[in-house]
Write a structure and sequence with these properties.
With 81 residues, the chain is an all-alpha fold. The protein contains three helices and no strands. It has helices spanning 5-25, 30-54, 64-79. Helix 2 crosses helix 3. The longest helix has 25 residues, at 30-54. The protein is flat, with a radius of gyration of 18 Å. The protein starts with a helix and ends with a helix.
């Protein structure tokens, strides 16, 4: 049977609650962890926009594949400075 939108939302809520419980079990503040993830995303996206501008076009004009390549490049830069 195909799940309804409400069922999918409920299931996703259960998954999120499980992740929060896992974080607490690991003695990790889930709000702090999520905040860090958001900060990293913003930093990476900003860098992707910079790379696109260096090629003379806004990021939105690149294909999804090209944007993914920028994303991977930025991750490599951050983890292998």
């Amino acid at each position: 049977a195909i799940a309804s939108g409400q069922n999918i939302e409920e299931e996703l809520g259960d998954v999120l609650a499980s992740v929060v419980n896992l974080a607490r079990h690991l003695k990790i503040d889930p709000e702090k962890a999520l905040g860090g993830a958001c900060d990293r995303f913003i930093s990476r996206y900003t860098r992707m926009e910079e790379l696109a501008e260096k090629q003379g076009r806004p990021l939105e004009e690149f294909t999804p594949e090209a944007r993914e390549a920028f994303w991977e490049q930025v991750k490599r830069e951050q983890y292998n400075p």
